[in-house]
From TrEMBL:
Assigned GO CC terms: mediator complex
Keywords, sorted A to Z: Membrane, Transmembrane, Transmembrane helix
Transmembrane segments: 597-616, 696-717
Keyword Transmembrane assigned: yes
Entry protein name: MEDIATOR OF RNA polymerase II TRANSCRIPTION SUBUNIT 33A-LIKE
Protein's organism: Salix purpurea (Purple osier willow)
GO biological processes: regulation of phenylpropanoid metabolic process
InterPro entries according to UniProt: MED33A/B
Length: 721
């Protein structure tokens, strides 16, 4: 590829800016505004519209579409010429490609291991991100481009140097990138095989192996085959290997997985030492930094497959975490102190036996060979999150071991690394997650032990940060912050929903016990269904009940999103009302008050979940699913009011839930009522009248539209007569 140093400099500014592409775009704009006509054309190609719109959600797809042609062009070029910039940095096609490719990968969910995309009943938010998805978003955005006035002004600003195409772009426009992405998916799906001896790819694999292990004095016969069909050999000299690799970067990336497979197999069979493997991987990454993406992809897939023997991190063959492992264990226990979760011991009989899956050991050994300078930072930002996510998905205590190794290298990162390791306690232990949820409720409601928190509220739930800057060293982390970091690892979200519902019900009992006095409860027992409270402090109890319901609904929404909310309203709540619960038989002081408060708590819980999922109006796409769910739920309530369904819960709970949910709909979400079938509204209204809730019945019918006007008028007349 031909290009002037200025053009290459502009490209490098764009793709090597670690934080925000917008500032880089502004720099390129200033350079190109005073340049020649050719340079203006180059700038237009580079920008590709990425600077026209502020905001992450819009900017990222446009930036990705700007990077793809850069990757395609520079990755297909032979690095025959290099350019020296005014800063002294030497640029080649491989360097520009590596910068652009690395940034492109960071725009989608590349750093998560394969198992993360299929974990749980519901895929995690963002797991659908891919190059194709980013292009689809870009096409959708540009199809409606130019409508907002602010975007028109920004477009006119760049109109002198930028010709923005609003034509759709698809992956077929980038055949080399598409081929790499397909290979990336194949690497995740199955092991490599079918490398034919003597083909161009095989020759590149041999050149890569010679480049990686040129420091090895002893040789290994070429006939020693590996699972990929390649071999590890000393072959020609390093200079010859460098010359043979003056080929397009895409060709190198195509051959890289086979070279990695050969190297890892040789290490597993003792033909290559761990130190030689780590050094070889570093040499490969130094030669073509973009190969780090393939290294991460390959090792992540191999860890997920679980076919490699564990590596003993004993300090002889592999680096040892023993210096910091005990300290990391104690810090993790301190971080989780506020949750009451037990931390599994990292030692057996007082001895720390640290092992990691072989591919993970190779990857962490590679990362700790990097110096933490500005040049390495842009590539560690790709490998670091991937390593963290990969180790977090492995059995305990893989991530604490990785953290211990990295803490030896970078002490200033210790707090963050230990906090990351503390999350993995919950990844393979559902009981620990339930205990964490319980801590969220007790801390928010002020029901925690006095030495932890007694005030409650959002401050107790989310805390005020963490780290060693606190007095006495690293401090316990608030349970809400921990759950925000671990909820993606929850595999059975339906089970979590049932646990949240159960914790909500128990929290109501605790609220009643802490707010209501014995004398007040004696007076309450004499009143029917707890409808008249006298001096009972119902307002204080209801305030905390609503807080508990809002927390529960937030946890459900965070855990599973729209699908889980709809499952809750369609299935979980009806099943709960039908089932017989041991907590209903507890009696005691709370009596009917607790049963009634539980009904109100469930009403707020259901309404909050619905508003999170659908909104209060019909603007969102998700709201289109609302009528079907509401119809089924209100039909269940109508059947219960008519006695067609036998309820297992306390009668006061069912009454409080039904009247509370309908009242909240009427007062807060009137548009929901319009979407419910008229006949169902009439049935619910009739049931409310039987429970002496005439005013609520009229209000419900009044919002039902033309179809319920007659029934509402009849009810008003009956009430007046």
């Amino acid at each position: 590829m031909n290009g002037s140093p200025l053009t290459l400099s502009m490209i490098n500014i764009l793709v090597s800016t670690p934080a925000s592409s917008l500032s880089a775009i502004e720099k390129i704009y200033e350079i190109a505004a005073n340049g020649s006509e050719d340079e203006k054309i180059s700038a237009a190609t580079i920008l590709c519209g990425a600077s026209l719109v502020r905001g992450w959600n819009i900017q990222v797809p446009l930036l990705a579409s700007a990077l793809m042609p850069i990757c395609e062009a520079f990755g297909s070029a032979v690095p025959e010429v290099s350019w020296t910039l005014s800063t002294g940095e030497e640029l080649s096609c491989h360097a520009v490609f590596s910068n652009a490719f690395t940034l492109l990968l960071r725009l989608w969910r590349f750093d998560h291991p394969p198992i993360d995309h299929v974990m749980g009943d519901i895929p995690p938010v963002g797991s659908h991100l891919s190059p194709e998805y980013l292009l689809l978003v870009r096409n959708s955005l540009l199809a409606s481009f130019g409508t907002p006035t602010r975007r028109q002004l920004r477009r006119r600003r760049y109109s002198k140097i930028l010709s923005l195409s609003v034509e759709p772009i698809f992956m077929d426009s980038f055949p080399k990138l598409k081929l790499w992405y397909r290979q990336h998916l194949e690497c995740i799906a199955s092991t490599f095989s079918g490398l034919v001896h003597g083909t161009p790819v095989h020759q590149i694999v041999d050149a890569l192996l010679n480049l990686m292990f040129r420091r090895i004095n002893r040789g290994v016969q070429s006939s020693t085959s590996t699972t990929s069909g390649s071999s590890l050999s000393s072959g020609p000299g390093a200079e010859d290997a460098q010359a043979r690799l003056k080929i397009p970067a895409w060709d190198i990336l195509e051959a890289t997985p086979f070279a990695l497979d050969a190297a890892l197999t040789a290490c597993a069979h003792g033909r290559l030492s761990p130190r030689e493997l780590a050094t070889g991987l570093k040499d490969l990454a130094d030669f073509l930094p973009a190969s780090l993406a393939t290294i991460v992809s390959y090792f992540s897939a191999e860890v997920t497959r679980g076919i490699w023997k564990p590596a003993s991190m004993n300090g002889t063959d592999w680096p040892s975490p023993a210096v910091n492992l005990s300290s990391v264990e104690q810090q993790i226990k301190k971080i989780l102190a506020a949750t009451g979760v037990d931390v599994p011991s990292l030692s057996v009989g007082g001895t720390y036996l640290a092992t990691l899956p072989l591919p993970l050991a190779a990857l962490v050994s590679l990362t700790i060979t990097y110096k933490l300078d500005k040049m390495s930072e842009r590539f560690l930002t790709l490998v670091g999150p991937a390593l963290n996510a990969l180790a977090a998905g492995c059995p305990w205590p893989c991530l604490p071991i990785v953290v211990s190794l990295w803490a030896q290298k970078v002490k200033r990162w210790s707090d963050y690394l230990v906090f990351s390791a503390s999350r993995t306690v919950f990844h393979h232990n559902s009981d620990a997650v339930v205990q964490l949820l319980k801590s969220c409720f007790t801390s928010t409601l002020g029901l925690s032990p006095p030495h932890i928190s007694s005030n409650g509220g959002v401050g107790a739930l989310l805390g005020h940060g963490f780290g060693s800057h606190f007095s006495g060293g690293i401090a316990p982390v608030a349970p809400g912050i921990l759950y925000l970091r671990v909820h993606r690892s929850v595999r059975d979200v339906i089970f979590m929903t049932e646990e949240i519902l159960s914790l909500l019900m128990h929290s109501v009992r605790d609220i009643a016990s802490s707010v209501l006095t014995r004398g007040a409860m004696e007076k309450l027992k004499k009143s029917k269904y707890g409808m008249r409270y006298g001096q009972v402090s119902l307002a204080a109890a209801m305030t905390r009940v609503k807080l508990a319901a809002s927390l529960g609904s937030s946890l459900v929404w965070i855990t599973g999103g729209l699908n889980l909310v709809q499952s809750l309203i369609n299935e979980t709540l009806p099943s709960w009302f039908i089932s017989v619960h041991g907590l209903e038989q507890e009696g005691g002081e709370s009596g009917g008050m607790v049963a009634m408060l539980r009904g109100y708590a469930l009403a707020y819980f259901a309404l909050f979940c619905g508003t999170f999922a659908w909104g209060v109006d019909s603007e969102s796409t998700a709201s289109k699913k609302r009528p079907t769910v509401l119809k089924a739920h209100l039909e269940f309530l109508a059947s219960a009011l008519e006695g067609k369904i036998s309820l297992g819960c306390d009668w006061a709970t069912a009454w409080a839930y039904t009247s509370g949910f309908v009242c909240l709909m009427v007062a807060c979400t009137p548009k929901w009522v319009l979407e419910v079938d008229v006949d169902i509204l009439k049935r619910v209204s009739k049931g409310l009248r039987q429970w002496n809730e005439e005013e609520l019945a009229v209000a419900l019918l009044g919002l039902g539209g033309v179809g319920t006007m007659g029934a509402a008028a009849e009810l008003v007349i009956e009430m007046g007569s």
